Amino acid sequence: MRGDGHGDRRPGAIALGFDAYGRLELRRADGTVVQDVTPVRAFPLSAPGEGISLVGREGREIQWIDRIEALDPASRKVLETALAERDIVPRIERILSVSTFVTPSEWRVVTDRGDTTLTLRAEEDIRRLGTRALLVADRHGIHFRIDDIERLDATSRRLLDRFL
Amino acid sequence: MTQAARFPTEPPLAPGERVLGRLELDFDPAGRFVPGELLLTDGRLLARHGSGGWTAVELEPGMRLRVSDHAGVGTLELHGPAARIGRWRYLMRRQDQAAEFADLARQRLSGAEREFEPEARCPACGAELPYAGASCRACEAAEPADTAPATWTLFRLWRFARPYRRWLALGFVLTLASTAATLVPPYLTMPLMDDVLIPFQNGQPIDTGLVGMYLGGLLAAALLAWGLGWARTYILALVSERIGADLRTAAYDHLLSLSVDFFGSKRTGDLIARIGSETDRINVFLSLHLLDFATDVLMIAMTAVILVSIDPSLALATLLPLPFIAWLIHLVRERLRTGFEKIDRVWAQVTSVLADTIPGIRVVKAFAQERHESQRFAAANQHNLRVNDRLNRTWSMFTPTVSLLTEIGLLVVWAFGIWQIAHERISVGVLTAFLAYIGRFYTRLDTMSRIVSVTQKAAAGAKRIFDILDHVSSVPEPADPKPLGRVEGRIELRGVSFRYGNRTVLQDIDLVVEPGEMIGLVGHSGSGKSTLVNLILRFQDPAAGAILLDGTDIRSLGVADYRRHIGLVLQESFLFFGTVAENIAYGRPDATREDIVAAARAAHAHDFILRLPHGYDSLVGERGQSLSGGERQRIAIARALLIDPRILILDEATASVDTETEQEIQRALDNLVKGRTTIAIAHRLSTLRQADRLVVLDRGRIVEQGRHEALLAARGAYYRLHEAQARLAAAQFGTGSGQGPDGGPAEAAHLGRAAS
After folding, report:
1. For testing the chain A interface, which of B28, B73, B472, B698 should be mutated: the one with the most A CBs within 10 Å?
2. Is the fold of B2-116 the same as that of B150-470?
3. Which residues numbered 96-115 in A keep a CB inside 8 Å of some CB on B?
4. Strand B693-698 to strand B518-522: parallel, antiparallel, or no bridges (unpaired)?
5. Which of A104, B29, B237, B746 could form a disulfide with B607 if both were Cys (CB 3.0 to 4.6 A apart)?
6. A153 CA to chain B: closest CA distance, Å?
7. What is the arithmetic mean of pLDDT over B611-634?
């Protein structure tokens, strides 16, 4: 019985899989299985591969994973799938048009997940990540990433520049 | 076309099968943006992604539907007895649609028919409303985007100029007259040259009478221009100052009417800058730059008329460069406008750093982060510099170019004029007059070019102010507020949900608080206690469900009218700069001194107030006497007592004071709570012992309700919270080690007062 709430942190001590409901389940070395855990990245922006917490149905941490690489390949793949399904953060590849330079403004964008529109509520909703990456929050909650402003085409940059 | 795009294929319905509900999907199973739809029929779920075919799932008893969301993406899952059968994802802007869909589907699964009740619908979009006459969330969400370019924003200032239109008309007439007066002197140089100087050179004597007349005319014109110019500038400055003041007041009034979440999303420094310096910038623009510009335009128009009337061909040569310069101005205008908007935003960033750091200076110093803050400021400043540098590159080239064009224009006039004199088409006087006119004319063009930048600056400022003015409060005042008579104080929450951004904070809360009942809200931080209280205070409106006061939806009541019946005591009491008495009477400025003292006594604040150097007249607040947390708290309790509210909200009222003061405050609170409907939030469970009922919240849901003892006996969530705190308290033994003899100083002060 471990009382620290972080679980066994030795490499190989845990394994991950999906149950029939498509939910993540945690299997510990001692044979216990925790069903329906949710993976949460502790640092989704600054260090997405480090510090992943598996949170139980009660909202409590069940297991802490220091590094995703520390898992066995199968578990790692499971975890990556689960994280990818949970975090939909489309990457903006091109900005096709903006409805207005006055916020709220509706943008038509091309992302790595297809074409869509987003509504920028205010200029503050664009968050700078470092010097060249941006995180654009849509008014309904989806966060869009721009990995590198410099790599956008001229039109997108010109449109984007009006909001920075 | 659109119809075909929406329904690429008809859903494969069996004969007699009805479509009961529809949910639009935004993602395909792989999580790409592909529009699709999910239909609920009598016995099936039909799904389609993009132009792909339909997939069907038979609904069977024992299946369950799960709705969840994360980071702006909603997920609807269908679970069978042993495995997940389907999963569909949508954008969170469809959450209401999804919730309704899930409800319908669950009713199908449980075999119950949905009972339709006559429901209020939005007249604009037909969406269901929580009650008749409520504002429609769907329509609000689709608020029209402002498409007007920044310059046009300035015309919206007309709303503020309208009350002064008579003055403005007078100012315009004066401008016209004074401009005309300034155009007289060059005209007089023409006869002066041709009738006096040239004949003199040709050997005729000077006609002193004529000279006196022309010089007198010049002086008179100058004096007239001076007088009229003064009157016009004075009147228009007066008017623009008033327009600026009205704008400021309107912006501030509107700001005050906005809901609390607006302030949460904006930075204080930015808002202060908008209302303070932006209105001033507009003011200066109106009184100085716009006035000058109008004068210049008038002058150019009048000059053009005079020049053409003197000599059309020379006038043509003089005016030719004008369209070219106008084109140049237009060219640079675009680049400058975006640049100035950018500078404004960067400038707001610089001030925000200050507004962040100065109030938090204790934290900065305690953590020795002066260097870090300095770097942060320097970085913002550097950014400011970079943006300015880029703009200045364009801007600095602009003025010299206009000057160059002026010189070239003069050259053209000289050349053409000399050529015409040589051919005896015009006199020397005419050329002199032309040169005198365009000398002014082109210098005015030079200043006029500046209007580009100031207009853009003012327009950017106006835009930022109208951003505030156009912001609709998310807590809308009802169009036809119901009168609020005697308030009993029964509060009812019906299926209340609330989301903050993409995070669900409260979900399906049902709660009734009877008149005079005291309930305690308990839960971990982040469990939704404060949000619940914010909703009851109507700082925000729930996303779904309704809050009722004595059976009336609070959204149909006047906001101020409703809040008047609520007393609020917060964890950190905010005192305004002013006297203690003024602070206590904040909610009821007409309260008598007796009322104030009575309230202070009941709040156990009387004694310490008397200990202050000027008693009730001592200044407190930011620049006044510093008070301890407990003292401030008791003033806040007195403030709440004075308005005698039917409903009382205590938000961690005793959290930031020590145990000893807490007892004092507790006694004050006991006075306050008596007979009022009270909702108290407390992290420290011991302070909620006297509550009639405890409501335990966990992650946005009510998990337990009941009295302290009953909840302890149930050994549920409350029991765990209580145990955790008991352990903590046991670990911190030694606090509150007996009470010393208090009241001494208070007594002395009291005696002193009695003696004087």
Report:
1. B73
2. no
3. 99-106, 111, 113-115
4. parallel
5. B746
6. 19
7. 78
- What is the DSSP secondary structure assignment for residue B278, as one 8-state letter? I
**CA neighbor of B526 nearest in space, from B503, B502, B505:** B505
ipTM of predicted complex: 0.79
Residue A128, H or E segment: strand A126-129
- DSSP label at B104? H
Show the tokens assigned to B720.
Answer: 């765990």
> Which of 369-408 (B) contact A at CB < 8 A?
none
Instruction: Give me the pLDDT at residue A108, please.
Output: 93
CB atoms < 10 A from the CB of A104, how many? 17
The C-alpha angle A91, B72, B471, rounded to 5 degrees, equals 100
Question: What CATH number labels B150-470?
Answer: 1.20.1560.10
Is domain B2-116 annotated with CATH 2.30.29.30? Answer: yes
Tell me whether residues B502 and A140 touch, CB distance under 8 A: yes
Helix (H, G, I), strand (E, B) or coil at A2: coil
B143 to chain A: nearest residue by CA?
A104
Cα–Cα–Cα angle for B513, B516, B519, nearest 5°?
50
Sketch the domain layout of chain B as residue ranges.
2-116, 150-470
Please say whether the beta carbons of B286 and B242 come within 8 A: no
Q: How far is CA B583 from CA B234, B321, B588, B621, B665, in A?
A: 42, 66, 10, 9, 18
- CB–CB of B31 and A102 under 8 A? no
pTM score of the predicted model: 0.59
Contact state of A142 with B71 under an 8 Å Cβ cutoff: yes
| Rg, C-alpha atoms of chain B | 37
Radius of gyration of chain A (CA): 19
Q: Report the C-alpha gap between B681 and B678 in whole angstroms.
A: 10
Q: What is the pLDDT of residues B415-451, one digit of tens each?
A: 989 998 999 888 888 888 888 888 777 667 666 766 7
Tell me whether residues A141 and B72 touch, CB distance under 8 A.
yes
Distance CA B700, CA B697 (A): 6
Residues B310-348 pLDDT 10s: 888 888 887 877 777 777 766 776 677 778 778 888 888
Burial of A156 (0-12, 13-18, 19+ CB in 10 A): buried
Would an 8 Å CB–CB cutoff place B242 in contact with chain A?
Answer: no
Taking a C-beta distance cutoff of 8 angstroms, is the pair B29, B73 a contact? no
Dump the DSSP string for B282-317. HHHIIIIIIHHHHHHHHHHHHHHHHHHHH-HHHHHH
Contacts by B741-744, CB closer than 8 A, 24 or more apart? B743/B607
Sheet with B19-27, strands from edge to edge, namely B19-27, B33-41, B44-49, B54-58
State whether residue B724 sits within 8 Å of chain A by CB: no
Q: How many helices (H) and strands (E) does chain B have?
A: 28, 19
What is d(CA B76, CA B87) in angstroms, rounded to the nearest whole number?
6
For residue B398 the two structure tokens come to 């602009």
Pair B162, B468: CB distance under 8 Å: no
CB contact under 8 A, B93 and A140: yes
- Contact across the interface for B147 and A162, Cβ inside 8 Å: no
Residue B649: its H or E element: strand B647-651
Instruction: Kindly report, residue by residue over B243-267, the tens digit of the pLDDT.
Output: 888 988 988 888 888 877 778 767 7
In one-letter notation, the amino acid at residue B619 is L
What kind and span of H or E run contains B601? helix B593-602
Of A21-25, B136-140, B346-350, B632-636, which gets the smallest average pLDDT? B136-140
Q: Which of B26, B72, B147 comes nearest A100 by C-beta? A: B147
B327: tokens are: 């084109």
Using CA atoms, how far apart are residues A36 and A39, in angstroms rounded to an integer?
10
Place of tokens 């939806």: B553
**Cα–Cα distance, B399 to B738 (Å, whole number):** 78
